[in-house]
């Protein structure tokens, strides 16, 4: 299986070609870093300079895709350049390899290279000074610092800024994602609230209309039909009024209806249920309770009476509200038994809405058969500021 080398970045190709051409130009005009008479120059003339120059230029092609390999190979090339008359282009390209190794290399390499080049700079200053004991020996350390430590430190600074910018961008994306999730949850909660309001406001009237229209169609008695049509008209007008109010709320963007139902309206609610044909008894000893609890309790009683109108057997429906142990206790019972079917169709959304209302206030909700009765029981906690 053939080994495919990574394709070099376009900028790296420009750097390699520019460095090679610049080095060839300097060599052609005889510009070198050391004279042929320098003691460290083992190979004089222009040709020995070209080998380190070409190898370093080739390493520039790998500065981004394989920075560690490029630095190791470039270090060998710059060491070979020392024993020739030297090329400034080779040295400059080596400094870029050090910089790229810190910037694009692994985190471990990015931490180690500045330390290694720093130690080499210190050693390059102290060891020659200790051996030769002349101030000029410090120039070796200065050159080492310029060629190795300075680009490594620059790469470390640039990398830190880049990592910080990436982390800030990631945090911004996470914040935007959380904000979008919060917005979606708020929209879902608002849709659920409006669905509960729509169901509770209209279902009672539509159920009464369905039941009395069935009676008007099935019973051939003028008096009964007239009474049923009267109830149908009253519920139609009331339902239409509630729908208009709800549509106004949606258009205006208000969070709550302008007139929030309260427990003071339970008597009128029970009277409406009686007019629709239910035998209802109300026992209320709740006192004053917080507004959210009032709204939830009113809607639970309203939906329970609607369900009793649709599903209950003939008999008395009892609504009881009491305060007990810091809770508002709501209990609605209706006769339960075998029937031919509901007097009006239902979707089951009413029980779901009552359960959601209780859960939003941290309360409990239960509904089901209890002996010969169908019992709805909710316990809603009262706020600390509630009046006892």
How would the blueprint of this fold be written?
Blueprint: H1 10-28, H2 47-60, H3 67-82, H4 88-104, H5 107-132, H6 138-218, H7 222-252, H8 266-275, E1 279-285, H9 291-311, E2 316-324, E3 327-335, H10 349-360, E4 364-370, E5 373-381
Parallel strand pairs: 1-2
Antiparallel strand pairs: 2-3, 3-5, 4-5
Structure characterization notes:
β4 and β5 form a beta hairpin. A 5-stranded mixed beta sheet has the order 1-2-3-5-4, covered by helices on one side. Residues about 385-388 have low confidence and may be disordered. It has 2 domains: about 10-175, no CATH class; about 260-388, Histidine kinase-like ATPase, C-terminal domain (Heat Shock Protein 90). The chain is rod-shaped. With about 400 residues, it is α+β, with helices and mostly antiparallel strands. The longest helix has about 80 residues, at about 140-220. The two termini are about 85 Å apart. It has helices spanning about 10-30, 45-60, 65-80, 90-105, 105-130, 140-220, 220-250, 265-275, 290-310, 350-360; strands at about 280-285, 315-325, 325-335, 365-370, 375-380. It is built from 10 helices and 5 strands.
The assigned structural class equals alpha+beta
- Helix percentage range: 55-70%
* Strand composition percent: 5-15%
What's the story with the biggest beta sheet? 5 strands, mixed
- Rg estimate, integer Å: 44 Å
| Shape assignment | rod-shaped
Mean pLDDT: 83
Provide the low-confidence segments as ranges: 384-388
Instruction: Give the beta-strand count.
Output: 5
SSE string, helices as H and strands as E: HHHHHHHHEHEEHEE
Number of helices: 10
- Span between N and C termini? 85 Å
Question: How many domains make up the coordinates?
Answer: 2
* Side-by-side strand order of the widest sheet: 1-2-3-5-4
